[in-house]
## 1
Amino acid sequence: MSKHPYLWAELTTEDVQGLAKDSAVVIQPIGAVEQHGPHLPLVTDALVAEVVVRTAVERLGGASNMWVLPTLHYGKSTEHLGRAGTIAMSTATLQAMCMDLGESLARSGVRKLVFVNGHGGQPSLLDVVARDIRHHFGLEVFPVMPSRFPLPAGVEDPDPFGIHGGFVETSLMLALAPELVRLDKAVADGLRVGELYAAQRHLTLEGAVPTAWLIDDVSASGVVGDPAGAAADTGKRIVGHWTELLAEALLEVQAFAFPALDGTAR
């Protein structure tokens, strides 16, 4: 018996054949291996995605018919290429991997796929590939990014542009893998981003009219944000809140179905 009965890779082929496919939800955590400044490990995005997914599925219980795939650690980290340690997939490579995943799951009879993404460099790519998987293989596909969920009440990032290695990510890693965090090397950086866009009416770093940026455009250290005040207790609160919201979303995914044009469920 598997210690983690919700892990897809620990099932046998007969187990998969016997799943209730109409309600099964298969979840792909996806992150990155990329620089996170001098104080956080390369695995930050992938680890956060994996822990939030596993904890959400554990919260739903063993009979939920939710299945977690092995975490895809490599992502589209083009903006961090050139910083030591970063391993980036091209757009074409990551799209092809996701398409192959969708085809493979469809051939196993699966109908619902959720991408849970921990890396800010690829949500647009996953939105596009989700629709392609829907078109080519018929799966209902849902890209989710936990960091787009709100922070828990009483928790606020001191830097409105704190998107990489700042308060939130440092707090998360202090909660999940404190032995990998080097707080003595933490620095605030990218703070001039606010000044850069202060006079702009429409342009933003990321938003309605985003700017395509590389890390060298906005940060010397690789950090975009301020890790000051980050704490493990804060990280635990964030993980708990995101886990709760993801679990709720997964139940909605499981119950969702597009109606056919004649009004019946497909």
## 2
Amino acid sequence: MKLWIDNLDGRGSRDYTAFVEAESAKVVRKLNAPTEFRVCLVGGRVSFAIPVVSARVMFTRENGHNLFTGYVAETPAEQYRGAGERGAEIRYELVALSDVMLLDRKSGALCPAFVGRTAGGGFRQLTQDMLPGQFDLSGVDEGDTIPFISVDPAKKWTTTAAEIALLGRCSYRDDAGQLFLTPLGQHTYSLSESDAYFSPDNLQLRSTGRIVNDLTVLGRLEPAAHVKDYFVGDAYGTTTFYLSQIPFARRNEVPLFNRTILDEEYGTLDPTHWRVVDPRSAVSVSAGQLQIAGGTGVDGQTLVEFVEKIELGGMTVLEHGDFAFSGGSNGVIGGLYDGLISMGACVAGFLITPSGGNCNIRAMVNGVATGNQVATQAGHHYVFTTRLYPTEAYRLQQVYHSSERVSGDARGGAAVASDVRVLLEVHDIDPANPASQVADATVLYDGVIANAPEFCEYALINAADMHCSVAFTYLFLAVDAVVRSAPKDENWKTRRVGARLDGAECRISSTPTLQFYPQHVPAADETIEVTYRSRRRAMARVVNSESIAELKNGADDGVRAAVRNIATPAARTTADCETAALALLDDAGQGWAGEYQAWSEMLPGGAEDIFPGDGLAVGLGSRDVSFLAIVREVEIGVCDLGEEQLLYVLRFVDAGDPGLAIEFEGAGAGLTKALTPVDVSQVGSSFLADLTGAEVVALTSTTVTVDAGWTPTVGSGVEMRYTDSGWGMSNSRNLIGRFTVRTFSLPRYARGQNYFVRRYDNSVPAKYSRNATALHVDYPL
């Protein structure tokens, strides 16, 4: 074996093998962590140079196989050993970490959260953002699509990489500048008592019981009832209205550093934010602005594209920026695209067309120009903003893995259908008129895109021939609420929610209240509708009735219960909690952990080397034990350098160990109510679709007329209650009534009153919507 160290002094790698103290070399590999190499060197000769911090270290076998490659992590500790034949001998304790140490020594990447990426895609992007081109990433597999991967600039690369690996049920490792990310157990070796070199004395096993058949899973705060609050303006200029429930806010359920998707001021065109396609060199940055001067004349060929997708879930504001046009232009600004970037695939954006030396601006929706147009004026500049109001907060369910549902075949991950209300507005600013700075923007489009895509590509610029400059781009998660109003006998319009400086007309506070700014006070008899989601703790109870029946014996009812609080992957909804429970119940049974020792030439399955994440097919016929194990740690002790005698210690758990794909929290939200159990065979089919379209369509002093937004079929109907509880045919405590028509009238007894609605079917027992729709009216009698 050879130990090579390059002290970065211009002399290249030198052979330190002769200085290695006997049996002191050890390599420790842990699952999804940097590999550590420790060795003691004895110096004292003239040729000995003390290894320096960050020196390159390679520990290799004679056949060229690397046991370790990396860098010295700290200044070696010294110990005086006395005088030898060649002078004083000093013992140096060297500690080195594998190649990813380079990534950990960089400041965290200031990149946006990864949205709708595969585990491998996120892993590659994280690495490229830290050290572009430094590592060979050809050994990174894709894995499953992960809805949202948080990127915290305060975390080291190894911490975020380990989180990505956990989300994908994968393992990562490095070797000589190459990174690998592969599914757990992709390489599996036999550890069987029938193998020629198997040593029963070197195997230690212990059982770990995981028998659970009644599992409660706790998650985060989730969006619950679909709430619509109705108010009316009065002659007194009332600006504050009290909401019936506390709104769910997606922006509060993501880490603080990911609530702002992008805040770009163009000192440079940051490659961690933007992907540029520019065959004619039309794109540049100067004087703190992004400059576009020309294009290829062809749609989709000159692009400034955001590196991440935009999830059409939760309220999102895209302030594309402050644009100044220097000539007639043709292209799309701030486009959201379903797939490849082209005008035909533009879900929403601003179409710019030339008009002499100026431009015309129109809304583009689903590939078609629509609505009125705004003509630009020389010397003016224009702020373009897109506001997205989806009916669903999350557009992709979380993914969970088990020994049965491995990487590439995860549970969950289903798309969530949603309509999206889109508001496209442009603010015309005349530098010669200060009042234009605070004037209202012109709304070019205010409408609903039905069944919108879950994720869209976002291109700030799609230039066929564009001549403009851009001062900033700001994308962020906004308050999850839609405020609309209709003056008496006029059409509805969307009121912008947020900060006044961002052009908003009102704001929603945590009190919870809706407050209009003085410039936008509702008129007398103006109807106001506030649409949002209430919130509750996500939780689910899933039972395996078949297992309970098998374990039932006399006074033992067979129930084996447990409660788990999920940290990672985040259980964002009750549906996610159910999916996590299914994954955990996949592996509810006999578990194993163990350790096996073997010389390098006698490794299980004839392996040349074994790494954390590799599988071991354990087969002990004499003990009636057979299971697939996953190696969590490999410790390699060097007993003889010259003879290459290496002693491997393999520490492993069975493939069903939940810690391989799920991280739990010891504390957190407790149970707030008794949960109705759902059998494993019924998960995913226990609830009907929510009545998201239910609304109040008419009011009198004594009645409220409701449109359920859905026409009942034979045997089904709509159930109305005064509170969100007691649902079911057997409970009439707070029941208003059951209706088999789409539109119906309800009694009204007070100025402020709540109505809750769910649909039901003719099943026995009847199935209901998972979430109620809450209709709150606050109208004078």
## 3
Amino acid sequence: MANIQIGIDLGTTNSEAAIINNGQIEIVKNHFGDEYTPSVFGINKANEEVIGKKAYNALSEGSKKEIQNNKAEIKRLMGTPDKVYFSRIDKEYSAAEISAKILERLKQDIKSKSPDIDITGIVITIPAHFSTVQAEATKKAGELAGFKYVLLLQEPIAAAISYGFTFKENGNWLVYDLGGGTFDSALISAKDNNLKVLSHSGDNFLGGKDIDWLIVEEIIAPVLIEKYNLENFSRANKNYSAVFTRLKNSAETAKIQLSRAEEVKIEVDVKIDDDEIYENITLSRSQLKSLLQNLISKTIDLCKQTILEANISKESISKIILVGGPTQLPFIKETLEEVLSIPVDTSSDPLTAIARGACIFASSQMIPQEFCKQKEINDNTYILKLNYESMTSETEEIITGIIFELIENENEFFVQIQSHNNTYNSDKIRLKNGKFIANIVIEENKTNEYWVYLFDKDGNSLDLSIDSFSITHGLSLSGAPIPHSIGVGITKKDNALGILKEESDIFFEKNSILPLERTKSYKTIKGLKKGDMVNCLPITLYEGEHSIPDRNIRICEIEINGEQLPYDLPESSDVEVTVKVNESREVSIEAYIPLMDLSFDARASYGDETLNIEVMTNDLEDETERLKDFDNLCTNDERQRLYSSINDIKQSINKSENDDDEKRKTNIRIKELKAKIDRLQNSKKFEIFKENFYNSTTDIQQLIEEIKDVPKKDEFLNRLETVKTDGNQAINQNNEILLNRVNEQLDELGRAVVMANDFVWVMWLRDFAENKTFTDEEKARYIINRGFEAYKNNEMQEVKSCVHQLSLLLPNEEKVAMDNKMAGITK
């Protein structure tokens, strides 16, 4: 039986490894003597793989060739289908594969430091706000690096463990983790030697990298553009990608220097359009503080959200723990204390806290027997099973054991337990029916290792299947919470509009404690014929807080099709969906159809959705138009914030052509924008209903006036007056529900009025003639000609008949594709 001995902070910019050495946590230095290794992978000029400082230095040169063959900050692409191409070897790597190379480098450093260390298991930290697919990709990277048993731990929890390892007082701590590429905020409760995560929030696209780019775009580039009269000089221009890589490196160096100095000179040494440019640009700490105002405000808003979700008062939080390199900027500490009125504790090392915490946690985790290198067992080996807590806050612990071969043996046998450093030696404990119990002493604030010996009555030592174990003294940890809600997409019918729409049905709320398992029952939305390979019933698992699925992140999907069925599946058949999430956030989903006693299952996918810049641009245009529909009802502040977000996304889209990370960031920001507009639209619902009511009554009035059939016209006018009376009454009473019903009645009336107008049918006929393709083009042309002939002769019933016949000739592929995108289940 063995415990994990290695914890790794796999960071965006730098990675650190920590190990257990003689019961103490130790940060492993690499062959350069550094405690951290740059998270950079590359191919050198000899076509050899390089990791860490050598790859970082090559990338910092900023030449086009080195940019093509060295990749940094891969963490923000974890869980995506994006590949990185290395031209020197004509090969692509996924983010998980590159991360595995970095982990392999750290493993080599660990083995160099401690050749005898057990590398079977490892704990790797991930941002608390990582999605499930990102977590899955990180676990895969650990396995690709050769670690058989990989556990994941959220970074703020690791930091809290590191800080609280020797901390004895009860209290609530706010972890402020601003790393190289991500931000996490977590509220931790330390009570009675137990750590518990109350809530957390974060942003996977907010970190030191974004600070570097702000310095480049707001400080360096404007100086160069003005002084050297540069045109089209931007990150979006791929001709300058090498230049901007060098500028980013200069910005990063200046940022680090400003954590110790009040003012620095940014050294710019680049070649732009055949001109050698050398500049020293002054940047002060106060300038940087002003530049980062919005970024830091966003992190503080996330901290406030974390506190709000924890449902505790700000006054009950005793301190803020800083984690991550950028937190060494003094004004971050000052701003946090000023805005949140909570003292900041700077006693822990923000650069190594996560790796240390990961290792402490690792030391308490047993490696399952199936992953361990089995000790050679022969006929003379006795099988021992031990029971104990591998992490405790107590200084003594009761341990029990059983040796199966001795359960009914009447001879005398004894067990003795001894600590590795000889600070504890038990008496010889006589076994009773093969069992024993011992009360062992535990040294504080370290991992205690023990030997177990078995003797016969003559004092001869006998072989045991397990001859050692370890117990870590420190704070124990309650289960980790999930950072996002998890649910499935279901299809519901909007009876008012007569359309189908998708919603998320939540299985597990955000902050639910792992592990999780739940089963829910649904109905199939449609029937499915045996052998049908075109239609399907998709069941998609999403992660996120929004009721509209496309605002969330897709985890995985089960697709039930006719090929899998033994016979036809009727509409509204029962489907039982089970979702499980384990401690490492691995997700599985199973769908069971009782009617057929048939199960379908899926594991969480390793790849996020494939992105298309044109689609994202169209999405942004659609959201902009949606906002315009009710922006006159917004306050100046609401309007300004949303249009500012839209402009920021436009700029991100421009940069996305040459930057996969920026593309992912853009996609998330569009989802966030949709959610913001949803919330704002919902808050303005009554005002929007009023505006729709007034606009609809005016439009319908005009349409009715164009109807030539006088009895029909009078009928519609009377119906309109009745609905208007009800609408005005709802407005006077501020009755949102009634006004919504009135608008639904207006929609129905409007459709009836439109159908009664001859010009609408003629418009549809023209649209069919100009823009549609048909399953039978010859027949369609005949019907179109017949329709126009009927229109000339004022035979409107014939026109309507022709339009209806043409609609039946439309190809159904588009309809099938649309149907297959809709969730296959409903309530």
## 4
Amino acid sequence: MNPYSIILLTTALINIILAVYSLRYNKTLLTLTYSIMLFGISLYSFGYAMELQAGNLGEIMFWLNIQYIAIPFLPTIFFILAVQYTGRVKLFKPWLIVLLFLFSLTTLVFHFTNFNDLYYKELKLTHFQSIPLAAFVKGTWYWIHQGVSNILLLFSIILFLVMVIQSRGLNRIRASIMLFSSVVPWIFYIIYLSGNSPHNLDLLPFSFSIVGILSTLGIFRYRLLDLMPVALEHVFDSLTDGLVIMDTRKRLISHNSAASEIIPELSVSMKGKDVNQVLSIFPVLANPADGIESDVEITRDGILQYYHLRVVAVNSDQDRLFGWAIIFTNITGRKQKENKLLETERNLTELNASKDKFLAIIAHDLRNSFHLMINMSDMILNNIENNNKEGALRKSKIMYDNSISTYNLLQNLLEWAMIQQKGVHFRPQPLQVKQLLEEELRNLHSLYEQKELSVRNSLDSPLVITGDEDMLKTVFRNLISNAIKYSYRGGEIFITGTASEDLVTIEITDQGTGMTREEQEKLFRIDSYLSRKGTASENGSGLGLKLCKEFINLHGGEIWVTSWPGKGSTFGFTVPAASHQSPQLPL
């Protein structure tokens, strides 16, 4: 056996031992890639050793085919190893990896088939020191494969070089071993491709002996495999949590990019310097200790951010305190949700309190109303017993008016309660506005006739809306009743309507008592109560307008008031036109 084959067989044996050891030492995706690469190198070296022992062209081609089981894939595998080892995970694009393996597979097929002489244009036998060698003229695909392989190798070398520059201490030594393990074979590879190899010997398999020596040194002397599960410095820097490490004297040891974004005052130049002043914005760090946790607020560029701060003790191998790691986890999203929930809870509490207060007032009004009816009934009985017909009629009129007012209050209260309990059913349909209005005016005729009021209805017949008939009747009843209640005797009430492309606007205007700005702001709010006597001392509950607002909201419309003290008020609302559906309609 010639000495060249002995060198190559020894190289193959060393690398296959390292491959098996790597898999047993640390079973991770990265060590798997590393072991596959070593297995490929071993197969390449073994095949070339046997090729140099071959006696004819047929045997040479057989062993060349064995080598080509690994050759097309080694550049791709080495590129993947470099990306994994240096922590450049962003380069791991699935489509790129698939494309590279398809390219390697295509090279393998072209080597075995030599389709249209794409890989070998000519193949013949030569001799070097009585050793038969294969001499061939390279084809087009051969050079394409070599070009892609060189690009991948060059890119891998650059990744390792950058890692060497950015690393420190033991990490730099490990990165340097990986760099030399890639540079040496690449130099041998370039020499062979340039045609400067002695007697056309393939020098690349011989370079693997150097790779084996460097790998052995790295694994057993510098614990090369300890680094392989993660590229520590790059993973450290790519953490989304901010991380600051300082020693027991509060000197900065290291920090990642996320920490720099949280605390811009941190910089590379501060390493080894006291960071007590920089971290003084966090009082909890005045006396750092293992297990300290706190939620902190930081405002940057006018934006408030919330972070959960946690202190972890960093101990040496001898369990002696080395310093502390301060971890900043962004909890802004969680805090905002918590604050929103707290605000919602606070609003619900206030709303429930307002409803309780409102219902208590309603109950008080109902009680007074029933007391009045009881007293009036008693007085009427006494007047009848004493033949006081005039007194009985007067008391009956008071009792009648109070009954009407109480009935309206109870009807509004029932409808409002059904809305709160989601017991009301919304049934939108095309409706003639004028028809609805005239029906309610007939029902209220006696009320405005008693006050000698004129109601001027200028609604046009073609006004057609999409709405719930019962709800809109309630809205008309309440708004017109209010206009009657607060109008002076002999006054006028105006009802107008206009239509746009998708909305119909209705306005009801009186010439009555009007309201102040403060009173207007309380009308539609459940957390406020406004009840005023009418011009004829009619009672009011303050509930009717709130009910109107609920019903108009269900239609997707708006309700408003414009008023001037002593001059009257205008209540307006919008509802969808018949050709449009409100976006808020329940299904």
